[in-house]
Amino acid sequence: MVQKSTSVCLLGGFLGLFLMAPVLMSSTPASMCTPLRTLNDSLSHRRRYMKHNFPINYSIRVYREEIFKLSNISRMKLKVEELDDLVLQRLWFQVNQGVLKKIIRVMSERHPSRSYTAELERRFKDVEGVFVQSHPAEVFQQELPEAVQETWDHLTEEPDRVPESNWRLVSPKSLVDNLCHTMYCLFSECFDAETQQDYCGDSQLRRGRKTSSQNTVTTPAE
Ligand SMILES: *[C@@H]1O[C@H](CO)[C@@H](O)[C@H](O)[C@H]1NC(C)=O
Ligand SMILES: *[C@@H]1O[C@H](CO)[C@@H](O)[C@H](O)[C@H]1NC(C)=O
Ligand SMILES: *[C@@H]1O[C@H](CO)[C@@H](O)[C@H](O)[C@H]1NC(C)=O
Q: Where is the signal peptide (predicted)?
């Protein structure tokens, strides 16, 4: 349902928004907090479903770039000047939709974690729907910083074109931990209690809030 209204909204709003949107963003639209917290509720059961239901040391093959942790965020912020949170959020969606798909693919229909993971994916997509809906379409066409574009290109590569050296073996639990911890960091406005535990690292990671222009332009989601 979210997806449908999203595309309607995108079609309808595209022209107008395209013309009026300056470069805006950073920070998380308030409308994302409800679906993010719903996803967070599911994530609280990840130990049971992503670890206990799998053999000891079980791991799956993922692209190197599908390992997206807090350390990646701080490194990218150091490397790319003025890196917008929105770019990192887009990357977060790109990485984790692939990760969830790969986890689901290793489970048979009757695997005890199958429906849990499918629910996780559904809730993740709900968040993505609201994310897309709460930003002008133009934002998603913006050029990415070069280093991020390079990562993006690797993430969207066909599996048979990924060289052997770019594959990694990672446990499902650790992939979902990454998803969760980076979520607390990148959407910190919705997770104040969690981010007080410093998920997003030190003050160098804290960005100034640039919300002034945003409030006037990104409200169609409401
Ligand atoms: C997110 O989930 C954790 C448990 O995993 C919980 O302690 C926390 O309160 C939740 N945060 C929000 C904002 O729902
Ligand atoms: C799992 O991995 C750990 C650390 O690499 C290793 O010490 C342990 O023996 C492994 N367990 C099994 C059952 O393979
Ligand atoms: C995160 O860092 C690791 C280690 O440097 C790297 O292999 C991986 O590609 C990075 N992930 C992203 C999404 O940039």
A: 1-25
Model pTM? 0.81
* Pocket lining: 74 vs ligand 3, CB cutoff 6 Å: no
The ligand whose atoms approach the alpha carbon of 59 most closely is 2
Residue whose CA is at the smallest distance from ligand 1 atom 1: 40
Q: Nearest residue CA, atom 8 of ligand 2?
A: 57
All structural domains of the chain: 29-210 (1.20.1250.80)
| 192 CB near ligand 1 (under 6 Å) | no
> Strand ranges (DSSP E) for 69-209?
167-170
pLDDT tens by residue, 20-48: 443 444 478 899 999 999 999 999 999 99
User: What pLDDT digit, counting tens, does each position of 98-113 carry?
Assistant: 999 999 999 999 999 9
